[in-house]
TrEMBL record:
TM spans (from-to): 12-31, 51-72, 84-109, 121-139
Keywords: Membrane, Transmembrane, Transmembrane helix
Superkingdom field: Bacteria
Record protein name field: Integral membrane protein
């Protein structure tokens, strides 16, 4: 079963979780990075056009990854491992944020360093975040559709 077949088999509950998580992720990153203008947060350097696309794609992938954690009725209890999705969402925050508004970047590089060194790598961070999220999603969907071997007691070999 490939990824698209697995998505077609998802129940409505998973799709609702995916949509809600995608919307929440978009808002939780867009508001503090001021991609959505608001009176609480601001930015000194205007957002780039790719920031909106990177955030939108990351939010959708975050929703899909989160939905893989919703158990389906026919699914056996399996261990739920993996941290790539969480890392991808965190990297997205740094990728679309204002390079000089981020306190961690300012502490590490200073104002000039943030503009000279951090701002040019932000598109690569966005690409890396999308790759991490996509990788996590595909790995989780493939793991779900893989066969689980039944546990057998070990018998001594004669």
């Amino acid at each position: 079963m490939d990824v698209l077949d697995a998505l077609r088999a998802w129940p409505a509950r998973r799709w609702m979780v995916a949509a809600a998580t995608a919307a929440a992720t978009y808002l939780l990153i867009a508001l503090p990075t001021d991609l959505i203008p608001n009176p609480v947060f601001g930015r000194e350097i205007p957002p780039t056009a790719w920031s909106y696309w990177a955030l939108g794609l990351s939010a959708v992938l975050s929703g899909l990854v989160t939905a893989t954690y919703v158990a389906t009725p026919d699914e056996a209890q399996r261990p739920r491992e993996g941290r790539l999705g969480m890392a991808g969402a965190l990297v997205t925050f740094f990728a679309v944020g204002c390079p000089v508004c981020n306190k961690l970047v300012l502490l590490a590089l200073g104002y000039t360093g943030a503009i000279q060194f951090f701002e040019p790598i932000q598109p690569y961070l966005a690409g890396g975040a999308i790759v991490l999220l996509a990788w996590a999603f595909v790995a989780r969907v493939r793991r779900e559709s893989s066969c689980v071997l039944p546990e057998r007691p070990l018998t001594p070999v004669r």
